[in-house]
Specification:
The chain has 15 helices and seven strands. It has a seven-stranded mixed beta sheet, sandwiched between helices. Helix 11 packs antiparallel against helix 12. The longest helix has 37 residues. It is elongated and about 85 Å long. The two termini are 51 Å apart.
């Protein structure tokens, strides 16, 4: 603990029945402890008086676990710590698992590491709502960051304090534990799991998680993170790769020579072109990333080809869509290219345009995908023959 400049952070609120046992267990392993009393109204203050050797923060009013953790992080930094292991005071975590976090950090190639305890959610004493909530949270963390974890909700964690200090963290309650790991991952911190034991003794454990309001707050936060991920984070990361490597090198290494098969690349091209031409103006980025993730296609290729509908091409795409729509519906319209370049008045015939747009998107996607497949397959054969 001292070598790694690590402390144990214990946020607590009305857990007088288990707090002493938790503190005694931690003290057997380290004296470097910070307790944040989050405005407890039970006998927590009396219990803490028995431990003058422990750093204590007494908050006058309960503001939530997220706020207590942030207060604890700030105190830990002031005391010169670089890492903090957070452990819940309700008795569900085992202090003897502390060395697992330290050993993992010590062996890691990077010190910019955030570790989350991975509980065995298949235990018979794990409540069904906890298991469901964890799976729900794991999925959205993966969608938002591209990283799959076994457990994203466990409060038993090791935080890199100097990296966490860089983040703009706003939520005060249980949703904070989602906010901090998503934003840390977006900022370049490696987020990993380590196995820990768990105890759900309902006779002594007091949980302050309110199923409806807290789950709703987490859902709202995840909704916002999905929007940010699709419209900012994923495009940002893609453009950073392109800028770092240069467009030509990026296309060769990430697109043409990516480990994905020619079939998968061709399907990614087809998806991008289809979404780019379809009448989903304003939602194309959201859709192409969502479908690429769902269909397990190449997100970089799909996004690149979804930009087929750049502004100079839009009048031509709409013109071709309406022409094809008239062919399919039999409706006759009188217009010229000037109508599209001027005010798109012809779009009052929405049915014709939408039908034609989807048809054009499908035909173009198949064409681009087929050509892409033949090209990529031929290139792979050439590479094999030359190699």
């Amino acid at each position: 603990m001292q070598q790694l400049r690590c402390c144990v952070l214990v946020p607590t609120y009305n857990n007088a029945g288990t707090l002493q046992k938790v503190l005694e267990g931690v003290l057997k392993r380290t004296p470097d402890i910070i307790v944040v009393n989050d405005g407890a109204t039970d006998t927590t203050s009396d219990i803490l008086q028995q431990y003058p050797q422990i750093h204590q923060i007494q908050l006058p009013k309960n503001k939530g676990k997220g706020n207590a953790l942030k207060v604890g992080f700030a105190k830990a930094l002031d005391l010169g710590y670089e890492y903090a292991i957070s452990i819940d005071s309700d008795g569900q975590h085992f202090p003897e698992d502390i060395p697992i976090f330290l050993e993992t950090l010590e062996k890691s190639e990077t010190k910019n590491l955030l570790l989350i305890g991975a509980r065995n959610m298949d235990q018979s004493d794990v409540p069904g709502k906890s298991s469901f909530g964890n799976k729900f949270s794991n999925f959205w963390f993966w969608f938002e960051t591209g990283k799959w974890l076994k457990d994203t909700q466990c409060g038993y964690r090791l935080y890199p304090l100097k990296e966490i200090e860089k983040l703009s963290l706003r939520t005060p309650k249980f949703e904070f534990e989602i906010e901090v790991i998503v934003k840390a991952a977006w900022n370049g911190t490696f987020v990993e799991n380590v196995p820990v034991k768990i105890s759900y003794d309902e006779e002594e454990r007091v949980s302050h998680f309110r199923t409806v309001p807290d789950f709703a707050r987490i859902s709202v936060l995840n909704t916002w993170f999905v929007i940010v991920a699709l419209f900012y984070i994923k495009p940002r990361d893609l453009f950073r790769k392109i800028r770092k490597k240069g467009f030509k090198k990026f296309m060769i290494e990430n697109v043409l020579q990516h480990n994905d098969s020619p079939k998968k690349k061709a399907l990614s091209i087809a998806l991008g072109v289809f979404i780019g031409i379809s009448p989903f103006w304003g939602f194309q980025t959201l859709l192409v990333f969502s479908l690429a993730v769902f269909l397990k296609l190449n997100k970089a290729i799909a996004f690149a080809f979804s930009n087929v509908s750049i502004p100079p091409f839009i009048p031509f795409i709409i013109y071709a869509s309406v022409q094809l729509g008239m062919l399919l519906t039999g409706e006759q319209l009188s217009f010229s290219m000037d109508d599209f370049a001027a005010d798109f008045e012809v779009l009052k015939h929405l049915k014709t345009y939408v039908l034609g747009s989807f048809a054009l998107a499908a035909i173009t996607a198949i064409l681009f995908g087929f050509i892409g497949y033949l090209t990529l397959r031929a290139k792979r054969k050439m590479a094999i023959n030359n190699g």
